[in-house]
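CORE FACILITY INTAKE
Project code: CF-77B
Contact: R.S. (postdoc)
Sample description: multi-component assembly, four entities in total
Requested service: structural model of the whole complex
Turnaround: standard
Below are the sequence entries exactly as provided by the requester. Do not edit them.
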Amino acid sequence: MFGGITMKTENPMAEARRTLTLRDVSEASGVSEMTVSRVLRGQGDVSARTREKVKAAAKELGYVPNRIAGSLASSRVNLVAVIIPSMSNMVFPEVMTGISDTLEGSGLQPVVGITNYKMEKEESVLYEMLSWRPSGVILAGLDHTDAARAMLRSAGIPIVEIMDVDGEPTDHAVGISHRRAGLEMARAILREGYQKIGFLGTKMMLDFRARKRFEGFTEELGKAGIEIVDQEFYSGGSALLKGREMTEAMLKRNEEIDFLYYSNDLIGAGGLLYCLEAGIDIPGTLGMAGFNGVELIDGLPRKLATMDACRYEIGQKAAEIILRHGENDEDAAPEKIELTPKIAFGDTLHRR
Amino acid sequence: MFGGITMKTENPMAEARRTLTLRDVSEASGVSEMTVSRVLRGQGDVSARTREKVKAAAKELGYVPNRIAGSLASSRVNLVAVIIPSMSNMVFPEVMTGISDTLEGSGLQPVVGITNYKMEKEESVLYEMLSWRPSGVILAGLDHTDAARAMLRSAGIPIVEIMDVDGEPTDHAVGISHRRAGLEMARAILREGYQKIGFLGTKMMLDFRARKRFEGFTEELGKAGIEIVDQEFYSGGSALLKGREMTEAMLKRNEEIDFLYYSNDLIGAGGLLYCLEAGIDIPGTLGMAGFNGVELIDGLPRKLATMDACRYEIGQKAAEIILRHGENDEDAAPEKIELTPKIAFGDTLHRR
DNA sequence: ACTGCGAGTGTTAGCGCTAACGTAACCTGT
DNA sequence: ACAGGTTACGTTAGCGCTAACACTCGCAGT
């Protein structure tokens, strides 16, 4: 049985609850199913009188249209698949907000799938989502399994790969260059005269964007003849705590270090808190920087330097691309939108 | 046109891409559509030879089944609607994790809808979700519009209201008593001898659970003949920063205050950071407590007292109820599961 | 030989809705 | 008066899939 919208019968003992259909509304209001359908979709010509009658009947019965049948008949689905690695790290919720805000009122609805940074999970989630024939797909990153890539190519709907532009998109792309983000940060750090640099990050075999930032960062340092003095990676647990612990460990290991670059703001914040407690002169003796530009750092005793990842804007622009496709039926030319993140120097990078 | 899975024709110029159906796979593999359907669903008897043949053909073509048609035909939908107020405040992502983990491997898939704490939005999101005829609904809170309540009652599927048990559930409920949580915290605070208590929270007209905590809290204080000395509410912005600012303002306003109760851990953390910087003796001169038990507080210089909201477990138990319904067709008796949050005293509540 | 049975496959009839077209009634202008 | 249009419906034929049943084998039991 459908988990269907059911009908309260006059006599509850007489008949099992049935699932309501257009037919029930049509009988209750004395018009054809087609007219009911037109009223409920607000499409086509229906006289005001009939419209009110039908609406009243539908409301009275508590009818909720069956979009499964509707979509099958009309070959139109008001869903946009959004596939992201995680919901718990502050960056994707904001992307989601950008998407939702932009889609709001368009009739399209985002549906979220989570991959936990696993390409295999991404593949299965994508398969699952495509089986609902969404009007578009927004997914994080440019790195997918071959099977996933094949599905995307042959899906026949707009695909927007977000967050990252360092690579060849399948269709559209909106994001920032993480290589460049790493590079820019390296330059800023060198410009301030820091020399002995440590890196702290997530175990990033699976987080391609963090890896790209790291690569861009080290390469740029390399050009100045500088190598990272120390590095450490964590996984799991409270990011703030890990940042604190890893920072303490690293600074004890390497007394010479004069800058710490963190792969995200949360561990950076943890590190910052540790250093302030330890009485280290920030940014004099030690500079610090994170990545993402999360709201949280505004509330820290000192503002951590960071780089905005343009999260909201990415979601917004991705959704706009999907919407644009809805208007004109033909496939528009693939767009590749590269946003430029700005460094926020905060109180931990600028040496006076 | 469906945003459908399309076919690459041998000659890309010859024919527009068509959307693939079971028929295409059936023709490619030389068996009936029904047999293909059986193979792809792994149901019914199909010989190993045929099975392989069909799977190969499906993979070759890149066929992705159309669940819209499948669900319509079978009256079964593998979706569970999850309706929550927000994704950006750390509490619901963890509930989601509990739900996802539990549903994993069951064939059921959670689909999330966000209400932004607005009942009207909740109503429309619910309508939208029900129109896809999910196998169950999990939604936050017991407070809904009349229309939403009516939809829930007549949906004919298991409904689980989560987070809150202070009230009459529509069907099942899993959560904690927020009144009781407030009450317990009041007791703990009084037990430690604090007397001049300030409250800091979100503007909570819309957050019913925060309000219930506040009510439970003030009532219990009232029994001891104590009234809140000062209170302040915020909305929007960085919670950490707001906590810092509001705390500073309140302490400057009321020098007598000896305890601050925050409606969530993040503003509490902001307040804590401020107090530490200001050199206030915590918890000697001033005690503090938050609510939720978020991971983040592990990384603070001093552990904020808090109360675990059992977020993961709530998600888990809610999903289990839905799964139980899937097994036996009849409606099981409504369950009401009340979890008991535990106070974590941390370093900011226990006076020595 | 015949029935009986289960494994493997095909056939038929929808699921609940909407696109596309049909039709009846009513305008409007000349 | 009548063609030609417009408004307000109804009718028909699917959308792509699966439940339910029908059928065809081959083989065991008698």
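Facility notes:
- Confidence is low (pLDDT under 50) at residues 7-16 of chain A.
- Chain A touches chain B through 69 residues (CB under 8 Å).
Invoice: internal transfer
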